[in-house]
Design goal:
By secondary structure, the protein is α+β, with helices and mostly antiparallel strands. About 30% of the residues lie in helices and about 15% in strands. The protein has helices at about 5-15, 45-50, 55-60, 180-185, 215-220, 225-230, 275-280, 300, 325-330, 330-335, 340-345, 365-370, 370-375, 385-390, 410-415, 420-425, 430-440, 455-460, 465-475, 480-490, 500-510, 515-525, 530-535; strands spanning about 70, 85, 90-95, 100-105, 110-120, 125-130, 140, 145, 155-160, 195-200, 205, 255, 265, 285, 300-305, 390-395, 400. Strands 1, 2, 3, 4, 5, 6, 7, 8 and 9 form a nine-stranded antiparallel sheet that branches. It has a two-stranded antiparallel sheet with strand order 10-11. A two-stranded antiparallel ribbon has the order 12-13. Strand 2 and strand 3 form a beta hairpin.
Length: about 550
């Protein structure tokens, strides 16, 4: 996940005269009270549940609640009954003794050792197990328990890298850096986590307030809110003492009707506090600091991945495990003002309705949940909205994640760009050309041949001769998703054409931090003088004291 090393970003900010492309245009925190009052403490779920009983009830038993647990009879799902599992010539055994959950498997030295399971990690569709190591480290076993029902192939031990040789010394071995809990996993499975890495001693002093994803992981430390609830009205009246303000202001509603048959917000969304609260754990990103608190702008503390080769296909479809944020930013839903809790209950995490009923809350069923729209027999698999608009890919062998781009199927792009085609994903005996022809002859649906930002990203990845122009055009296309525009900017790295340099200048001075991130990616390895020339805002003094205005 750490694809953007902190040191690289730090050096770039220093090279740009301390201005920093991400910092320029930084949005200040909402709370400007004196420092002594802006450091509320974490109080724990029990304090929250005294007043918020319904929310606590919904949260109990959710994946957030069960994200990480002490290994005991209630939490362990795997068969620790003497079961054997063989991978790459190594036979591991899972068993119990004296109330402890134990594993006999290969250690970092290649020899077999007995290890005690300290914590469970996750619950469904798989569960991993954490082992304590010297230096404050916890390592996640790469043999996981498939928690799915046996009828779906579950209730078995399996290896996360079954098709590879991953032995001791390999970064992907369970004792290696890739499966280190402190650095790679803990942030999103616990509350108020501090990694506490001590580089001079190469050890961790990791701390947390609560073991799992509890109330304050999303709402921020709650002591000031508790004080407000007890009558202390010296606190922020709008946020009621909370550091994260998730209330929609001005208040809005989704209004049905209109010729398109799609609901619209009564007031345009101007803030994305909720999405940026979810994003740190639902995005492929790197961290810039240890112990970031919720409520701050995302790019103050994290660097989200752009549409990089190997992570996303050229048209933005998910490829590697990138979670949901990057896909959602590309969607029409996001542009329309939809947010996570419009579809998911934020406490139970369950979707707000089953099947197509979730979508027809905003999309008129007589128009969209019809054979004329989806071309498939009613109640068939192909008639499900998610089948065409949210195709799924499996990660960690058993975990299906749906693409949150809510895309219109574009089979003609599959041939041009080498991208997945959702139509022939089911109709495997057919070709994308067949699917494109079917769509072209259906009334009132998307017509093949419409422009798509994937073409420019593909040309940039391929180093095509016309790539600079195509990428520059995408970079300034205000109708394109900002994530795609930022990716286009980043792909201009090393392009000498004047059109590329101008695109970098515009992106470096853009109000949206994602575009500035794209510019940073493009110039971070460049000549320091070029970095300063592009990265210094036009109205700011250069390091020599002269203004670029």
């Amino acid at each position: 996940m750490a694809r953007y090393p902190t040191v690289t970003l730090t050096l770039l900010i220093a090279a740009a005269g301390g201005l920093g492309l991400l910092a320029y245009g930084h949005r200040p925190a909402r709370d400007h009270r004196p420092a002594a009052e802006t450091a509320p403490a974490f109080v724990g779920r029990e304090a929250c549940a005294r007043c918020h009983t319904d929310e606590a009830r919904l949260w109990t038993g959710s994946h957030h609640d069960l994200a990480m647990q002490v290994a005991d009879d209630q939490s362990v799902r795997g068969a620790f009954d003497g079961s054997l599992f063989t991978y790459d010539g190594v036979t591991s055994r899972f068993y119990r003794r004296d109330g402890k959950y134990l594993v006999w498997t290969d250690g970092p030295d290649g020899a077999m050792h007995e290890y005690e399971v300290a914590y469970t990690f996750g619950v469904d569709p798989l569960q991993q197990y954490l082992i304590a190591f010297p230096g404050g480290r916890y390592q996640a076993l790469d043999i996981a328990w498939d928690a799915r029902p046996a009828t779906r192939g579950g209730q078995r031990w399996y290896h996360l890298h079954a098709d590879e040789h991953v032995g001791p010394g390999d970064v992907l071995h369970w004792t290696g850096a890739a499966l280190n809990w402190n650095d790679r996993c803990a942030r999103c499975h616990s509350t108020n986590l501090r990694k506490g890495y001590r580089p001079e001693e190469d050890r961790y002093e990791t701390t947390w307030s609560e073991l799992d994803v509890s109330c304050e992981a999303c709402h921020g430390p709650g002591s000031a809110h508790v004080a407000w609830a007890r009558g202390d009205r010296t606190r922020d009246v709008i946020g009621k003492g909370l550091t994260v303000d998730l209330v929609d202001r001005p208040s809005a509603a989704w209004v049905s009707g209109g010729p398109a048959g799609i609901a619209h917000r009564s007031v345009q969304r101007t803030a994305h506090a909720e999405i940026e609260t979810c994003a740190p754990c639902h995005a492929r990103r790197a961290e810039l600091s240890d112990g970031a608190l919720p409520g701050r702008p995302l790019l103050d503390d994290y660097v989200p991945a752009l549409l990089e080769d190997g992570l996303y296909f050229p048209d933005g479809q998910i490829q590697d495990e990138v979670y949901e944020y990057g896909s959602f930013l590309q969607s029409r839903m996001y542009r329309a003002g939809v947010t996570c809790s419009d579809c998911h209950d934020p406490h139970s995490l369950r979707v707000r309705a089953d099947g197509n009923a979730l979508c027809t809350r905003c999309h008129a069923p007589e128009r969209f949940d019809s054979v004329e729209h989806h071309f498939h027999p009613a109640d068939s698999g192909g008639a499900r909205c998610v089948a065409c608009h949210m195709p799924a890919r499996k990660y960690m062998d058993v975990h299906e994640r749906r693409d949150h781009g809510f895309r219109v199927p574009r089979p003609e792009l599959a041939t041009k760009l080498g991208t997945p085609d959702v139509c022939t994903g089911c109709h495997v005996e057919r070709t994308p050309a067949w699917a494109a022809d079917v769509i072209a002859h259906r009334p009132g649906v998307h017509r093949p041949g419409m422009p798509h930002y994937g073409a420019a990203i593909w040309s940039g990845r391929q180093g095509a001769t016309d790539a600079a122009r195509a990428l520059a055009d995408l970079a300034r296309d205000a109708d394109a998703p900002t994530l795609a525009r930022a990716t286009a900017v980043a792909l201009l790295r090393g392009e000498p054409a004047p059109v590329a340099r101008e695109a970098l200048r515009r992106a470096a001075d853009a109000p949206d931090p994602l575009l500035r991130l794209g510019a940073m990616r493009a110039i971070e390895d460049g000549d320091p003088r070029e970095v300063v020339a592009i990265g210094t805002p036009p109205s700011s003094p250069t390091p020599t004291g002269r203004s670029r205005m």
